[in-house]
Write a structure and sequence with these properties.
The protein is an alpha+beta fold and about 475 residues long. Helices cover about 15% and strands about 45% of the residues. The chain contains eight helices and 20 strands. It comes from Pedobacter gandavensis.
């Protein structure tokens, strides 16, 4: 049933979603920073050891947010009760549920050369991106369509759209200094898609036959998915098999000015996935007859599900990864380091503007990060970290206030706990460095890169373009 499926999907998102953009970790020289922002350093001369890894230890986060019909969603999540009788109809705009995922399962990075500060890294990630925009009328339709007889919606009232995709990402990351102040980095990735689901209703209508009192629902749009029923998903579904291959690239640069300003810019995860020929594709153009009072709710939900999913064509298709552009400006003032970060999705809706306020003393730091999401949501993030040249551990939340109220509501099964939009977030990680120290050549005769005079990769690349001119 669609109602049951919707509840399951919402609960699944709140329980399992991981967020990719923990802004408090930017410019921290952690493993996360080095892999997410490919021009960033992970090692420190005369202090760090040569190798770094998370050794399959936790390096992940969890974040999801829902805006619109907040009390209704809170009741679904906290009390698992679906009751649409108080949802207002005839309002403009969409309700929004969105999430994205980035869990580093394994990371390994090596200090490659003192000259140009070369670093080479390898990583395995599990990622998910998703966004759903739906109307109040849709929530009422799948729960109690009889109500719509008395409050007939306008055309287009069910024009919902959304997508979700999950994939593994296997990456090679390389960074180096171009000059003493300017650095470049790149991340090349091989992708293995595991699941995809997308629905786009471009036209919809609800009509009432005055002679027999029967409702008819019309839907026009398209549907693409790697599965037709949520019961098809299992643990094996999310294992990497490369039946759905893809590729992506990330490019980054950073600059440290003489006056102390730090600037960073990145193009992240620009790529695609080719979903195999066993996937489902359907151009939806259906009119669903509703049998008035003799048709119960479950029968209608099954008919609606069949109209959208039944007789789908089996064929492959492409989807884009959720590429981003982001930029950062930062400067330290003693113990306080403020940073301004702007991040924008390229192909899908969404983005953030954040201000990170980091306070650091010795190896301990605390960061407070107010964030404005372009879905018109405001967050307050909080992060604590202990970091030495060879060890890091951090714990944080992108939305600490909502997380607190949401957890209380779920534990107490009380939908009255919390106000405004719904959301929850937590992230944490551990990283360890080992091996020989990456000492300055004046202090060591075995420093990587000393004696062989390694060349700069990016200098050679840029020299090719300058010769063509």
């Amino acid at each position: 049933m669609l109602k049951k499926a919707l509840c399951i999907v919402i609960l699944f998102l709140f329980a399992h979603q991981l967020k990719a953009q923990q802004y408090g970790l930017f410019n921290t020289k952690t493993l996360f920073d080095g892999f997410e922002n490919p021009a960033q350093k992970t090692f420190t001369l005369d202090s760090s050891r040569k190798y770094a890894s998370n050794f399959f230890l936790p390096y992940l986060g969890a974040n999801v947010a829902s805006k619109g019909n907040d009390d209704f969603i809170r009741k679904v999540i906290n009390e698992q009760v679906y009751d649409s009788k108080n949802i207002p109809l005839g309002q403009k705009g969409f309700n929004t549920l969105y999430q994205n995922t980035n869990a580093y399962l394994l990371t390994f990075k090596v200090f490659n050369s003192y000259k140009y500060q070369k670093e080479l890294g390898f990583s395995w990630q599990l990622r998910t991106d998703g966004l759903a925009k739906y109307t109040n009328e849709t929530l009422v339709l799948v729960d109690n369509y009889q109500r719509l007889k008395n409050e007939m919606p306008k055309r287009g009232a069910f024009n919902d759209k959304g997508y979700a995709q999950t994939y593994h990402q296997f990456s090679v990351t390389y960074r180096e200094n171009y000059t003493k102040r300017l650095a470049f980095g790149a991340k090349l990735s091989l992708l293995s898609g595991t699941s995809y689901n997308q629905l786009n209703i471009s036209d919809s209508d609800l009509s009432l036959d005055q002679t027999n009192g029967r409702l008819s629902a019309k839907f026009v749009g398209n549907y693409r998915s790697t599965f037709k029923d949520i019961d098809e998903l299992s643990t094996n579904t999310f294992m990497p098999t490369f039946k759905n291959p893809g590729a992506s690239i990330s490019l980054g640069t950073s600059y440290q000015s003489k006056s102390g300003y730090f600037l960073m810019a990145n193009l992240k995860d620009l790529g695609f996935i080719r979903w195999n020929s066993q996937s489902y594709y359907k151009n939806v153009n259906e009119v669903i007859e509703i049998e008035g009072s003799t048709d119960n709710r479950d029968q209608f939900q099954n008919r609606l599900s069949d109209a959208l999913l039944k007789n789908a064509e089996r064929r492959g298709f492409y989807s884009a990864t959720n590429a981003k552009l982001d930029a950062m400006l930062s400067k330290s003032f003693g113990l306080w380091t403020p940073s301004i970060i702007v991040s924008k999705n390229l192909f899908y809706a969404g983005g953030d503007a954040a201000m990170v306020n980091k306070f650091k003393y010795d190896g301990f730091s605390v960061s407070a990060t107010p964030t404005y999401n372009f879905q018109k949501l405001f967050y307050l993030g909080l992060q604590t970290m202990y970091q030495t040249p060879n060890f890091e551990v951090f714990l944080g939340s992108d939305d600490v206030l909502k997380t607190t109220s949401q957890v209380k509501g779920i534990l107490n099964k009380d939908a009255t706990l919390g106000k405004s939009y719904n959301g929850a977030s937590v992230y944490f990680g551990i990283g360890i460095k080992f091996g020989n120290y990456v000492e300055h050549p004046q202090n060591s005769s075995t420093m990587p890169g000393i004696g062989e005079q390694p060349q700069s990769v990016f200098q050679r690349i840029f020299s090719i373009f300058s010769k063509k001119k």
